[in-house]
Design brief:
- The chain has 315 residues and is mainly β.
- Helices cover 3% and strands 43% of the residues.
- It is elongated, with a radius of gyration of 27 Å.
């Protein structure tokens, strides 16, 4: 029989460490990496010098020695530091900072007994490739950062550090917002270098999750009303005071009759720290550019649709 003798948390049974590691693997859905976007971030020392510091946080590390080794739950409480050797050579050297697990059940001779060895630890692997993103040699661990150390350099700064962290199971939240104006907006016409909001489309006040690092936005306006002449300009949207969905050109050469095109815009926006845990207004706007001869409006025959997905990534 190759099954474990009893499922986890069966009263009266004894469970091996391997069985608990397999449980961690299952709960992590076979993924590995940091738990939340700000976990285990590598930065320069408070006073830059010959090392880096690693923030607090936790993560999941998949065992690589045995197919059924399972996964390890690791955590760093407080800030830790790790030394980085000076580069005395004549060319840039690339080192990788990792969180490694060395379980003596599968490799090495470390002793995990209380007061003995750390079998999970931060390590620096020297001389990796300039574009390396995975740990060389099949070691059990997760990469945290790659450091480009110029020749004759001993002080590590943030500008040398490339973040390699991945969120094991990033959170995502997606919602669809729909709005139909009840009356015609003020026409956007003439020419201007400043966008104008559609006066009858108030937009949506959207809650930004505390964990969000990106917003993927797809914004559609169906039944946009163009009239009075050829229209040339663009439409865009703003999310709060700081973020703008990439403008899309409105270039219509159909004369003075009423036309009803549909325009779609979209963007992936980086969420500022100040947005997290707040509510921000998403609202469409338009612009009439040089050469425009027409008018642009939305009205009761128009529909605005916003598809907003928040995503968690390292930050």
């Amino acid at each position: 029989m190759t099954l474990f003798q009893a499922p986890i948390l069966t009263d009266g049974a004894t469970h091996s460490a391997q069985q608990f590691r397999m449980l961690v693997r299952d709960l992590a859905r076979g993924n590995e990496g940091i738990t939340e976007g700000d976990d285990l971030k590598v930065t320069e020392l408070d006073t830059p010098g010959g090392g880096v510091q690693i923030s607090d946080g936790s993560g999941i590390v998949t065992g690589r020695v045995n197919a059924f080794q399972g996964s390890y739950s690791v955590a760093n409480v407080g800030v830790d530091t790790v030394d980085v050797a000076a580069n005395g050579g004549g060319a840039t050297r690339y080192d990788m900072v990792i969180l490694r697990v060395e379980d003596p059940e599968y490799e090495g001779t470390l002793d995990p007994a209380p007061g003995e060895d750390y079998i999970n630890y931060f390590d620096v692997i020297p001389n990796v490739g300039s574009t390396a993103t995975t740990i060389p040699g099949g070691l059990t661990g997760i990469p945290l950062a790659r450091i480009a150390i110029p020749a004759a350099t001993s002080v590590i700064t943030d500008g040398m550090i490339t973040d390699l962290r991945k969120v094991a199971n990033p959170r995502r939240e997606r919602r669809l917002y729909v709005q139909t104006p009840t009356s015609s907006s003020t026409a956007i016409s003439g020419t201007s270098s400043t966008p104008t909001y559609f006066s009858t489309a108030a937009g949506w006040t959207i809650d930004v999750p505390e964990w969000a690092t990106q917003a993927i936005i797809s914004f559609s306006i169906g039944g946009l009303r163009l009239s009075s002449g050829d229209y040339y300009g663009n439409i865009s949207a703003t999310f709060g005071a700081a973020l703008v969905v990439e403008p899309v050109i409105v270039d219509d050469d159909q004369g003075g009759g009423v036309r009803r095109p549909t325009h779609i815009m979209g963007d992936t926006l980086t969420i500022p720290d100040a947005y997290r845990g707040t509510s921000q207004l998403l609202r469409a706007r338009g612009l009439a550019a040089a050469g425009n001869a027409g008018s642009m409006q939305i009205d009761a025959s128009s529909t605005l649709i916003a598809d907003v997905e928040f995503v968690e990534a390292p930050r």
